[in-house]
Task: structure prediction
Amino acid sequence: MLTHKHLLGLENYPSKDIQAIIDTAFQFREVLDRPIKKVPSLQGVTIVNLFFENSTRTRISFELAQKRLSADTVNFSASSSSLKKGESFKDTAQNIEAMKIDAVVMRHPAPGAPLHLTQFIDAVVINAGDGTHEHPTQAILDMMSLQEKFGKLAGLKIAIVGDILHSRVALSNIHGLQSMGAEVTLCGPTNLIPSFVEDLGVTVNSNLDEVMEWADALNVLRIQRERMGSALLPSVREYRSLFGITEERLANHKKEIVIMHPGPMNRGVEIDSQVADGGQAIILDQVLNGVASRMAILYLLCGEKPEDGNA
Amino acid sequence: MNIKTLPQKVLLEGGKIYNPVSNKLEKGNLFIVNGKIASEDKSQTFDAQAIDCKGKIVTHGFCDIHVHFREPGREDKETLETGALAALAGGFTRVCVMPNTNPPLDTPESIRFIIEKGESVPVHIHPIGAITRQQAGKDITEMGLMKNEGAVAFSDDGLPVQDGSVMRRALEYGSMFDIPIINHAEDKCMREDGVMNEGPMSTRLGLSGNPTIAESSMVHRDLALGEMTGGRVHVPHVSTAQAADHIKEMKKTNNKVTAEVAPHHIYFNEAAIEHFDTNLKVAPPIRSEFDRKALIEAVKKGVFDCIATDHAPHTIEEKEASFDLAAFGMIGLESCFGAVNKVLVKENGLALSTLIQMLTINPRRIMGFESDLFQTGIQAEIVVLDPDEEWLFSKTNIHSRSKNSPFINETLIGRPVITISKNKIINNE
Amino acid sequence: MNQKQLLDEKRLGQTIIRLSHEIIEKNTTPGDIALIGIHRRGVPLAKRIQNQLKSIAQIDVPLGTVDITFHRDDFRERLVMPQIKGTEIPFSLDGKIVILIDDVLFTGRTIRAAMDVLNAFGRAASIQLAVLVDRGHREMPIRADFVGKNIPTHEGEHVSVLIQEVDKKDAVILTWDGE
Ligand SMILES: [Zn+2]
Result:
């Protein structure tokens, strides 16, 4: 099965395992096209969705994946105020352990929290985003969507555009794409590019038009409106003129560039509606592939042989 | 570790005596009568309790001018009593406690409290007073009265004096008392919410970074203010190459400047944080390998006067939090000698004598303590060292009330075997 | 390990022809037949039966495949990466007479899982089962409508069906442990 018991991040994650997840995910895409979109693969498996911060999209995608696999699920949402106490995290973890849960899908604002969780519990841990660290399932669904569109990942030129510094999507995409043989360029305001990020082997270029000339696909990140008018960004109109994926800008490049967005979008800021809804966007495929790839991840990870040898 | 009252006559025999004042290492015995250094006289020593120090080095007890013993207010983390045990286990006989307690040591009365409470514990404890009231960085404290009660230096440690004009006025005012002003140099605006060194590792881990310039720019400011005001600037826990460079430059023209380096900054680099070990979360942060190497070079060039541990106990709960929420700080007294001796002496060729000076006479001179401890009649502050023993540092070696040490499971080299302090003898074996 | 060939290429071919005849004889409205092969060897068998139906009765019947990997209840006992071939049913099952085709009928669990997959695709008029070999030892109340050859087996015996398209030759072989 997969090399690692947990899915915490894509840094140093084996490329053969990423490929296995994507291949399995395409099989689940077929299940999702059936009139009855349900298979009994994870019957009897109990999964808790542990969300320490709000992320409706990711949670719904995981929940749907779990239902399609016939797993039993429990949702647990904790308020961020309870996070201030370190004990509550440990207590929650130990409660999960006591309840004999097979797998935990966790979203947490703190980098490293999923790794921390593995120190308290035996269950499989799947990282559904840990702060600005990793969000491996998002990167896998992005890669699956790229493979669906281009038929391969090796050799692709992918640009990640926007606020890289505060993104939970960028790092996992960088690690994953690079291990699958794609090239990655980061494009955004220079003060929203993490320092030393070139050490990860990516190129940084803040000229969006040059980057679009180069790229096969753009992964456009959400820009938080609250960052506008701060020390980081002066205004929406300036951001839009420098980094917005507008219809005109896309038309100026006489080539097919695939447009992706992890959602939720700020239409009219980082991406125009006409682009988001246009023929070059695969944003809705990403949503569907999100369910399929999370099914594949749950299926492959929760199928690990129990230690006592009895299923 | 066992702690006993010192017998009336003790003869430390068969070892080598290292005197950091004369910088001489000689075979010889040390005779202690009624807890005080005595001259070795055959008619006196015959009935003394002999302690075999063969293969060991006998020298001054260590002095750490930067510890946090949490009393008053957080006695669940450490007390003067438990902190003293940690000190003794590390070969320290004298420590200076930082004022970031609750309430902080910002009045003559609170200084008095530490002095009185400290009398009964088996190491010498000196309080450092706050620079500003409530350590709020605004209004300076009654430095004169606090000094009269026993404050040996002033610091808002834990919190930087962010406002340059307050730092200026404090240095000017403090210059009347010829007493070190110790500023925890991290520009708060530059540091933002950084929880580790800003570098490739913080980017990989998605943790917010604290850039080296947050420290170096404030150290630069403080050094310039020291020159301008004539005050005594002591730079604590230097973590960056640039700050070390600034100190090195300023020392050429201003002999009042002193500086310390902490064991963890020369032992670890940021790569150790790869698995989010919160015991490595400290302020200023563990830096890059480049900085670590530069600090070691700076030690060899004499930029740092002393080693200080910044011993900072925290409860398990405060350290079991996620990395961004965990408390800053680590304990360091028990592991200090094994760590710095390993890195500086064994790995980087520093003379052991220089290291011992950085743990004995140098810190005592900064604080104005008696530093010539082998004089007859002086109350014995002695440590017996095995400089070559390799040992695995483990929880059982910790005597602090808190266990937040990243040195657990590290192999250290060199160990304080016996500590003699305030008429007590502590055997670490 | 001992082995004995029970069907050679020629006998295996004849068996498929006979199965095809039986399918037509049993079903009075052959136009409603749809064939579904179970991965892996059920798929080439289904393809051959489809060809036979065309040459015997001149009827074109649709052919689909099912992969039961996601439906297996013994998934958690295995350690190897599942080899998923995919389910492909490019036509509606509603009202169809579905002939489910596999190489060997043994415990019945594979067939039960395959019927679960079919249920997810629609409501067939009926489901019938055709297998090349029935080796007994059922663990579920499942019976084949069309059987190429009954091979009752003992513990320690194993039946291997080899199909040209997968195994480069046609044969049915019985193997058993010991002398
Ligand atoms: Zn400090």
